[in-house]
Predict the 3D structure of the following.
Amino acid sequence: MKKIKTMKMNKLRLIILSISMFVWSCGDDEAGAEEVAYRASISGISSVSESDIGTFKISLDKVNKTGTGLVFNYDVNGTAEAGQDFQALAGSVTVEDGDIETTVTIPIIDDTVEEDDETIIILLNTQRLPSQVSATGATSLTITLIDNDDSGIPGVSCSNDNSTDQNNRVCDQTTGVSNTYSASINGGTREITTNGIPTHDYGNQIPKIVSALNSESKSFSMNANPVTGASITAIDDDGRPRYKFGVALNGVAIDPAPAEPFIFENTNTGEFNWDWVFEPNNNMNAVGLDCAIAHVQPDGTYHYHGDMAIYADQLLAGLGTGSVVPGESIQIGWAADGFPILYKFGPDASGNMVELTPGYQLKSGDRPGDGITAPCGTYNGKYTNDYEFVANSGDLDECNGIARSITLNGETFSYFYVITEAFPVISRCFAGSPNTSFRIGPG
């Protein structure tokens, strides 16, 4: 029998349904009507402490225009118990006409009993979807409820914010400046000149600091005939950003590593612990990322931190949203060492086009920190160091690439990198030698 608990309520706000929509014109001349179909999925954060208040939000590209509310049913499973760990949920929710999101509030019960972490699993009922809706992408969401109680034994208590946030932000601004990008090969060096302006809309999370994008000319160089080295080169130096990973074919820098202030901070001294940097892909709201998983720096420079799906859709419609499988490899950029970067799909050993998977996994157990000088809590992806590479667990190597011959636009390479769905999304190291034009800071 479960222990009786002292209750106090926090509100965990969970965005459970995101609707991405596509429109087509019917071929029936008599009807001549436009039918709108919707695709439903579930998303949200992966964990929350009993003492935390989490807010999760998904921004949608289109609204419900059916003229009526769309009702979605969901089931609730997991090790956490309704009435003991959280208040029971209704099991259905409506996306009203004219709305672009639906929020379900889960009242979390903050008890005083020390216990193991538990889970709430939300499952979209795909058998009872509205007739206008199909399910694509994630149809389930697991939230870990992290216990915040301790045994009362001195020295064993540890508490810090261990919440994550994978909610995409909006791209609500147009660039106002045309993109420029040119590439050429001179003497074995590939030279790229660009103004770094994205070819898609963007979001600016710091408008009071910078009101416009930096459109100054930017130059990148790399080996046009790259080779892999005997050892890898990390993009960071003891956690501090050292290199941009690469540049997209639209000229936007690909720069996954976070900088200040997105680092664990000593609660007593205010010093940063660079062993524990926030993982941008799991702290999207905190890092201020837009729908392209990118943001604007204080100097107006725009760069990608994660899956730039909106740009991938410009290269091939449906590629970024996952509604199509490409018939051939789609290159999305160049790495600083000169090797190409593909978007999610590439050839397997037999030459068949498949989605390639990374070999990283979350570490098991809890971090060793005390919550003051270093973070504690379960390894849940809040920090980049929560992950470890497990050989042969995926298709790709430690640098999220693979030694496999590929020909792109008449050029043949012995190795390529991949932007993946799961961590690390963008590689954090180089198989070859990065060019200094991608260097961050002095040196």
User: Anything to note?
Assistant: Helices lie at 284-287, 309-315. The longest strand covers residues 9-25. The chain has a mean pLDDT of 84. The CA atoms of residues 332 and 360 lie 22 Å apart.
